[in-house]
Write a structure and sequence with these properties.
It comes from Acanthoscelides obtectus (Bean weevil). This is DDE Tnp4 domain-containing protein. By secondary structure, the protein is α+β, with helices and mostly antiparallel strands. Among the domains are: about 35-80, no CATH class; about 100-165, no CATH class. It has six helices and three strands. Strands 1-2-3 form a three-stranded antiparallel sheet, with no helix packed on it.
Length: about 170
Amino acid sequence: MASRNENYTILVMSAAVLVMADVNKKKRRQRRWWRTNLFKKRSGTGVLMDLKSQEISGQYKNFTRMTPTDFENLLQRIGPQISKQETYFLAGTLPQTPTAWKQVSKIFETRWNLPHCVGALDGKHVVLQAPVKSGTEFFNYKSNFSIVLFALVDGDYNFMFADVGC
């Protein structure tokens, strides 16, 4: 039988092992996310307006790396080139005048021997994985999920119209 002293020693040693294991256990570092007050208190007007209102704190210059006057000068120079345009570049543009349509018809007649043709039209079901929570929106008659790619080209294989949809 173990003596009382031995039991006490075993108890102290096991407590020491538990304390050492707790000390040696890696502490998980608390993550810190840094955000400026600008992004915490953003309004719906846009980042530039919010930055201009905080110009005195120096955040505008720190964010854009230029002074407000330099930024306005740059914006005036490149603004028209980067502004949103209404043309879908991949889709091309449809001819707007009867003479333009006749030109397309002439290309089809001379190159492909198809008189009075103003475009080649084709469509295809592009199979895709069903989007989350889409239900049967993209489900087609072939029993799979797809989206329709539809295009109209002229006689030189240039896109005049393209559409992607259900």
